[in-house]
Amino acid sequence: MLTLDNRLKEPLYLQVYRQIKEMICQGDLGQDYKLPSTRMLARTLSVGRNTVETAYLQLCSEGYVESKTGSGFYVNKLENLSNNPKSIPAISTSKSQLIEKDHRYNFQYGKLNNNDFPYKLWRKCINSILATPEAALMTAYNDKQGEIDLRFEIMKYLNQSRGVTCVPAQIVICAGTQQCLMLLSQLFREFSLEIAFEEPAYDGAREVFVNSGYNILPIQVKNDGLNLRQLETSKAKIAYLTPSHQFPSGALMPITKRHKLVNWAIQNNGIIIEDDYDSELRYNFRPVPAIQSLDKTGQVIYIGTFSKTLAPALRLSYLVLPLPWLAVFKHKFSNYNNSVPWLEQKALAQFMQNGQWERHLRKFSLIQKRKHDKMLETLHLLFGNRVRIHGANAGLHILLEFVDKDEATLINQADAQGIKVYPVSKYWFSPKNYENNMILLGYSSLTEQEIVDGLTLLKSAWFNEETRGRT
Amino acid sequence: MLTLDNRLKEPLYLQVYRQIKEMICQGDLGQDYKLPSTRMLARTLSVGRNTVETAYLQLCSEGYVESKTGSGFYVNKLENLSNNPKSIPAISTSKSQLIEKDHRYNFQYGKLNNNDFPYKLWRKCINSILATPEAALMTAYNDKQGEIDLRFEIMKYLNQSRGVTCVPAQIVICAGTQQCLMLLSQLFREFSLEIAFEEPAYDGAREVFVNSGYNILPIQVKNDGLNLRQLETSKAKIAYLTPSHQFPSGALMPITKRHKLVNWAIQNNGIIIEDDYDSELRYNFRPVPAIQSLDKTGQVIYIGTFSKTLAPALRLSYLVLPLPWLAVFKHKFSNYNNSVPWLEQKALAQFMQNGQWERHLRKFSLIQKRKHDKMLETLHLLFGNRVRIHGANAGLHILLEFVDKDEATLINQADAQGIKVYPVSKYWFSPKNYENNMILLGYSSLTEQEIVDGLTLLKSAWFNEETRGRT
Q: Which numeric CATH code is attached to B12-96?
């Protein structure tokens, strides 16, 4: 039964809500189970009826239970959660996350390993910023484009690491890549409402433009990136790209093609949005310079993020605008306040000024390279030529392509062994462009040993062989 | 001349940039002054040429200097900064801020007083969160609607203080009010592209919808808020309002009119966006319940913020969505990551759970009430019936209306005495609706004594009387 603890910081209704939710998710309370009345449960737990009601309403609004007028609260059928138009699944913790058991190994993309964030240094930076007289700026609306010292540091870093040429005035600090794109979707509204996207592409980027009323023109991705011919014959004047490690396919666009792409932009008065989301992470080969570095006419918008290399929970990304668009930006957004907390911006600026960012990045990349190498080595050893690997040598994920297995089967077979692997289908704009034979594996949250153990189990899951004893 | 200090954390190019900018702003380097060549200055300062070039380019992109090809860098005429199409004034620190001398008294709206932020408690919250095992979530993308404990605390608070009824599932944590509105502008795109705005209204809110392609329908504001008749005869299905302290006029919408407004929404299947931006700050009278609290059919979107009561630099606001729109929200934004840093959300949740928020708010409101009362008392004493005061008894600002003075004159006369007061004109969508005879005074950043001293100087500035000795 429910047990409440007054000494916990967690409010009582949150305790009630959490415990009932867990019971539902674990199947302890089955479909159509009638919850005790709010009056009764309140009396049993010695809490106010409000406490119970709040918990029930939250469960209702997330679709776990249903309120039948005059009769009470009943547990919903969980499998129907997303199909039931009346219920509203929590986008917070998604349905699948809630219902699934914990996995033994989770090849999640985007999550970093807890050991990789420099907690001590970060706390030091925050405390030292809060101790300066400048901390008075906490009580003000600050620089609309972001703190100038952070922009200077990003400029230096981009110039050294990516060949990006800019001044701080061209940089806008944003609360994540999607917020960069929200601003761009407003910036380009009068210019064009059609945008070319790689097919497949990061769905979260595409949806920002869909939700802003843009028409999406999917352009096929080849081994060397975007199909340029197809872009040229499209009506697009704006193209969103991940040229250095195409997401999710992992394709790398070579330098010659980058030049051609810039020429396309010049000839069509077009715009290239270059999302260089994991550019810091290149293993075993030299990085190709950013397209922005080839652009002399101001046609490339560059986007970077600290989510893949420092911490996604910081919500810190940036735009680099070419001068012609900077003028439009300033005109349109002169009244927009910056979205990133001042304290966080200053902490990051200090982290970069102290040389801590450089050291962190060197160490972090090395750790990721080791994981990447271990992943590849183990895949070759265990799977041989039964799978094709896409997107190696960079970033934090790879794709596995299969000859005779479909995505859903692969995910289910892995799940049965307690391994979580991820679908690729959602990255396609048109499902017909996808052969439905791939899965995505992220490795940044796992240790090297976990990667080996997880892949070993996957082999047994997919190819039905007992290999656990042998590795 | 320039002096650089290697021991400072500030990068060298930033030191060069800042010092030249200051010299230009202070008039030490006049129009058409030719800056030393990058080679020469680099040699003089014993720094790399890159350092100087970066500083010059930044000054260029902000419009302080101009590069004449082959000839060098020249100081621009500052007054022309915003008229010169080639120059790009920094939106960061706006032109006026840069050129103006420091004011003796600044009646800025939005800035709080440094003494009002609980620095120590905030640092404690952050450090204690970073010390918990839960801090591992720094390396993850977290709850898309915001941290559940923060949403619970906001729910409790809203219910107690504003009569707002909701569950945490209806709350979305956002990075400032404008980010709330960015999401809403995407949410309502298929529903209607016309939106009624109070006239005058917060320009930063209106611009989000303008930039999203909405058609703005300005609705006159009367002493009791929005002109309901005008709203009814407009084509609007969406209305953005600040009913509890209309910005900037300060009008308060009474309860009966709130009921009528809800009826308008019901009859027209309309949406009310209720921006309750400073609802915590009510002096000398009981607050009127939020419109959201009267809404039984799910037609009110409620927006709140921590900018006016805790710190604008936190960039923390929230949406409360009615259930029907929550479903659409979840559908459209299922892939949108939350924009507010995890650490900040958790710190605020802890601050609220500990009862510190309640204590802070009680103290903060009392301080603001004292300032407000001092402001009103002094105004009555010094200005008698030569000005009309709008928007008293709430918030952090008032408007002064004059019989025979126009806005520009008022601002210039104040400026001549070293006092900064603010224009109201920009809040009107159609300039013809404004009689051009008001100014805005914010008082939250000043002390009570500064308020008295500033107003005394203002009297002498506006009515040309020497009153300084007399108060």
A: 1.10.10.10
